[in-house]
Amino acid sequence: MSQTLYTPHQLFLQIAEGDEAAFTLLLDKYWNLIYSQSMAYLKDRFKAQDIVQEVFLAIWKSRHKLPEVESPEDYLFIIARNKIFNEVRKKVAEPITDNIEQYYAEQQLRPDRQFDHSEINTLLQDAISQLPPQRRRIFEMSRNEGLTYEAIASQLGISRETVKVQMVKALSFLRQYIRTHIPLYLFLKFFFNE
């Protein structure tokens, strides 16, 4: 590859044509910058490395779009920013989603967190409303009425194993829903208060 093709735009054009050498040059040029940006927010070198890899993988996978990009540097950093934000969103959601049963049971937070609590509870209720009817009923019987799996199975005329499977599916759905729908203000609050 010619030494004259070092501008980001020229590299993008070469990468769009499948030029792996140009891709390597782009990677060498921006790896440390994107890594530093990721580290500044994530404070975890493994996650920061993952972000950088994901950014360059996204570039390679969507290389056919690169000729349309007017500002390659902005494009790279927007991809990186979005991936960092997604990672931080997961981090914000983890305390809720990792202990969703405990969170749902306790429903009490410090007074200074009541607004956050209200928003998260609304989000959780939205997620619960989207469960299939029988799964929602099983979840509510367990969480709202405090019934055991055996008691739920007996009342609904189904096996304990069916109750267990439905609870696992319900909790899995709720975790995913919260991770992807956590309010932006909670994300930003976490992001800027760390």
Structural description of this entry:
There is one protein chain. This protein is mainly alpha-helical and 194 residues long. It folds into two domains: 8-92, RNA polymerase sigma factor, region 2, helix turn helix motif (Rna Polymerase Sigma Factor, Chain: A); 99-193, Arc Repressor Mutant, subunit A, CATH 1.10.10.10. 77% of the residues lie in helices and 0% in strands. The protein has helices at 8-16, 20-42, 45-61, 72-98, 100-106, 114-129, 133-143, 149-156, 160-181, 184-193. Helix 2 packs antiparallel against helix 3 (45-61) and helix 4 packs across helix 10. The protein is elongated, with a radius of gyration of 23 Å. The two termini are 44 Å apart. The model is unreliable at 107-115 and 188-194 (pLDDT under 50). Residues 28-91 form the RNA polymerase sigma-70 region domain. Belongs to the sigma-70 factor family. ECF subfamily. Residues 123-173 form the RNA polymerase sigma factor 70 region 4 type domain. Keywords: Sigma factor, Transcription, Transcription regulation. Pfam families: Sigma70_r2 (PF04542), Sigma70_r4_2 (PF08281).
